[in-house]
Amino acid sequence: MEFIDYYKVLGVDKSASLDDIKKAYRKLARKLHPDLNPNDKTAHLKFQQINEANEVLSDPEKRKKYDQYGKDWKQADQFEQHRQSQGRSQYGDGKEFSYGSDSDFSDFFESLFGRGQRSSQTKFRGQDYNAELKLALNDVMATKQETFTVNGKNIRITIPAGVENGQVIKLKGYGSPGVNGGPAGDLFISFSVADDPRFKRSGNDLYTNVDVELYTALLGGDITIETLTGKLKLKVNPETQNGTKIRVKGKGVPVYKKEGEVGDLYITYNIKLPTNLSEEQKRLFTELSKLN
Fold first, then answer.
1. Residue 206: which of 143, 268, 270, 135 has the closest Cα?
2. Which residue among 50, 114, 203, 246 is least crowded, i.e. fewest CB within 10 A of its CB?
3. Whole-angstrom Cα distance, residue 148 to residue 132?
4. How many Å apart are CA 201 and CA 71, to the nearest integer?
5. Under a CB-based contact definition with an 8 Å cutoff, are residues 271 and 242 in contact?
6. Does residue 120 have a pLDDT over 60?
């Protein structure tokens, strides 16, 4: 079971009061409700996580267990009963052990309940790390390498084209070192893809608006637009109407980890009317209106 930092989910400190937690939950619930985010594929998961976080942190007893045992807080009573039944005689050195809320207790519980005792050489898995990597929309158009620092250590990773906002990948063994030779934890990287002022993304498709001069719309012609991957030449048909939509196949966002598969680009034409007409231009338009 993957550890989820409930405090981070709600955006509060571990010292937050019950009132702070309730306020943070209500604010996020209004913002992330799936009904208000129909185009966000991750909205349901985010909403589920904030509800789960609120359920635990708003209950003093559950919160206390979560702070002490992390993701294994539901087994806290079972652990305490077992530890008491073992008696302090089993721990001859009299040492006390404490674990942060981010610790992974899987190996700990397995050794404790599976063998019925613990030795000083029990191997413990290191805790997981979480990191966020911010990207622009054009960064996801091609596979690229990125270097960033986690706990003072430089890590170079390959980011596949097509990653989505909120997507999480796991790098096995890049977390905290294990104890007594135990395996290292993992590194979970969350991608934050910023909105682009020119293009709206929906899945692997892109949507944009393009201005077209009136004369080009009436008579037809070629225009050149900027895309996330460079310039694109388009042919405008004669008598193109305002609001006309076209699809340019294969000019959207690459499909994640599917070589050769790319979404489409959808363009809506906005016909620009001329301004500051000269007297001659007004005369010509007047003549044209009479012919029409």
1. 268
2. 114
3. 10
4. 35
5. yes
6. no
pTM of this prediction?
A: 0.56
- β-pairing, 168-171 vs 187-193, is antiparallel
CB 168 within 8 A of CB 190: yes
Name the nearest CA neighbour of 95 among 74, 116, 72, 120. 120
Q: What angle do CA 44, 205, 245 make, to 5 degrees?
A: 120
Identical fold between 124-194 and 200-275: yes
Above 50 in pLDDT, residue 108? no
pLDDT digits (tens, 9 = 90+) for 216-252: 999 999 999 999 999 999 999 999 999 999 999 999 9
Q: Is domain 124-194 given the CATH code 2.60.260.20 in the classification?
A: yes
What residue segments make up the domains of the chain, in order of their start? 124-194, 200-275
What's the alpha-carbon Rg for the chain, to the nearest Å? 29
Quote the tokens at residue 72: 């294994």
> Which alpha helices (H) appear in the chain, and where do they start and end?
6-10, 18-32, 43-57, 60-69, 76-86, 106-115, 214-219, 279-291
Residue 259 CB burial class (10 angstroms; 0-12, 13-18, ≥19): exposed
What CA–CA distance (Å, rounded) separates 8 from 194?
20
- CB of 161 closer than 8 Å to CB of 258: no
Q: State which CATH number among 3.60.150.10, 3.90.1580.10, 3.30.565.10, 2.60.260.20 fits the domain covering 200-275.
A: 2.60.260.20
Is the pLDDT reported for residue 116 higher than 50? no
Condensed to tens digits (0 to 9), the pLDDT of residues 253-273 reads 999 999 899 999 999 999 999
Q: Which of 112, 107, 102 is nearest to 124 (CA)?
A: 107
Instruction: Enter the tokens of residue 86.
Output: 């073992």
